[in-house]
Amino acid sequence: MSIGHAFLFLAVIWTTIHFLYRIWYRKGVYTLLPAYLGSSAHLYRSTKVSLNALQLKVSTSQWNVHHDRLSTTFTRKANRTMNTLFQAVYNVGIIFSAIGMLVAVGGLVWVSAGSAWTMFQKISLGNSSQSHEASRLVKRLENTEDRKPIGTLPSAQFPGIIPIIPGITVPLSDLPIIILAVFLSQVVHELGHAVAAARETLPIISAGLSFTICIPAAFVTFPTCGMKNLTAKARSRIIAAGPFHNLIFWCFLVLVTHSKVVNIFSVIFGYNNMSDTGKVVVAVNEDSPLSLYLLPGSVITKLDDGPLTLSNDFWTEYLTGLPKFSSLGWCVSRSVLVKSDSCCTLLNTKASPLACFESFDHSERGCLDPVPVLTRPSSNGRCAASKDCSEESTCVIPHEEAQLLRLSVRPRLDLTEETTILWSGPRKEVWEEVQVGNWLPRFRLLPLGFPRLFTEFWNYLTMTTLSLYLFNLLPLAHLDGFELLQSLLDLAFTESSETFVYDIDALEAGEDHLESTRSRRRWKRWFTKYAPILTTGLVLSCIMFAMINVIY
What are the Peptidase M50 domain coordinates in residue numbering (predicted)? Predict the structure, then answer.
């Protein structure tokens, strides 16, 4: 999905929303009171829909009665044990939310410092990198002892944290899945607030959802006066319950991921896990040359000499990371190798079917047809050094500039014989044009891409749930973190509702106690005022450094 298609898709969605809203609005204005006030009429009366440009908001009081019933359940004497248990659980939630706030702020500091350091490295190494690239035209084969690409600049991505940005860090086609994952995480979050409020016998005004441009959100509204009249600890339980539910939900998702439950369900629904063999080809870009050779349903077992069973992320790491160099080469006749080395110079711009090969000790190089050499390793013989070959042969490997990649493929599961497909070009293009998965359907009627789609959704749901837990705990306005910070400060210091009482007590206790009380209030005001400002500064610095790293 291109950016243009994404904008067109959103335009169609918002046109449809505005059209349906006009129908709803006219029905609400011109329809008289119904003769029969059934459940549908009650739902219509208790639901409010507002539309402002690219923001849709739907709120309803339909769930209020269920929330009141849950509150009544908690207050019954027969359920005193359950009430105490929920209180203890949400007390633990306060602790984990406070820890999450510290982790979130610490993460911002880490990302900001790391991005600033990356920017400094790129600026300081920019000029030296350009001069180094010029010298590579002359001394191409020098400084190759470490066999690593030279002249590579530091990565512009966050240190240890890769943000989910559709079209940049993840495919734009994943946007609908991401939106659904964010919405479900929001529902879990707001459900936590609602359950904790029911336990504190705090009613809700309404519940609903909003959709802004392409970002969904769920919400639960509480009465402001009722919230303020609660004790600081009760308020902390309600505020922390949302992020705490996200944390519990994340632990559940991780537990299911690392258990064998997924494998059992997949087998029941007719899929075999092929992760012990390789990666299943789910789809190939129609415009890619690989579409003629890689058929959906075939299994890729190796990339060059690396088995895809080494790790679950080997496919992505190998194709998007730095070039890897094989420890094994091929025995090739010296007379064939030294015929020509014209393709081994950067000054040669002519298209050629030949590729540059070099010996392990870099003493010899030449141009060879890579197809008979790399696609038939058994006939050419593999070697670890030139001594493993005959006297008239030498052990060679493709030069790093040749950009050759071997894919070992099993066209059918019942075939043990593998074919080798040779790709010439950037390896990242293979990663972009070929979609792979771990599951192969046992029946032809089953969709090949469903397990991969579900796996991506599960992974996004796991990431967004944890991200929502940390992001909501940042001490910023309109986030749970700021309200939780105020409640925790009320617990640690004097509550504002008792200011006058504490002043009288302080006067009676003497000047020292009065100064101590004032000092605590100053610290409380300082945290409340400057914590959001400092956090906002960290967020803006992260965004600014990231943009500079991407542009520069």
Answer: 178-266
Q: What is the pLDDT of residues 381-407, one digit of tens each?
A: 788 888 888 888 888 888 877 888 889
Nearby residues of 356 by Cβ (< 8 Å), 6 or more positions away: 341, 343, 344, 365, 366, 367, 398, 399, 401, 402
Lowest mean pLDDT among 21-35, 132-146, 317-331: 132-146
52 bridge partner residues: 55
CB atoms within 10 A of CB 24: 14
User: Other CB atoms closer than 10 Å to residue 300's CB: what's the count?
Assistant: 23
Helix (H) or strand (E) holding 479: none
Handedness of CA 455, 456, 458, 463 (dihedral sign): positive
Q: Which two tokens stand for residue 511?
A: 């000047």
Strand partners, 395: 331
**Assigned token pair, 444:** 């032809």
Counting runs of H as helices and runs of E as strands, what totals does the chain give? 17, 17
CA 482 to chain centre: 25
Q: How many CA atoms lie within 13 A of 301 on its CB side?
A: 14
pTM beyond cutoff 0.85: no
Q: Tokens at residue 135, please?
A: 């010298």
Name the nearest CA neighbour of 154 among 188, 184, 191, 125: 125
**Please, how many CA atoms are within 13 Å of residue 116, restricted to the half-sphere of its CB?**
11
The CA-atom distances, in angstroms, between 289 and each of 285, 293, 402, 421, 433 are 9, 8, 18, 11, 10
Reading phi first (left if > 0) and then psi (alpha if -120 to 50, else beta), residue 296 is in beta
Q: Do you know the residue count of the chain?
A: 552
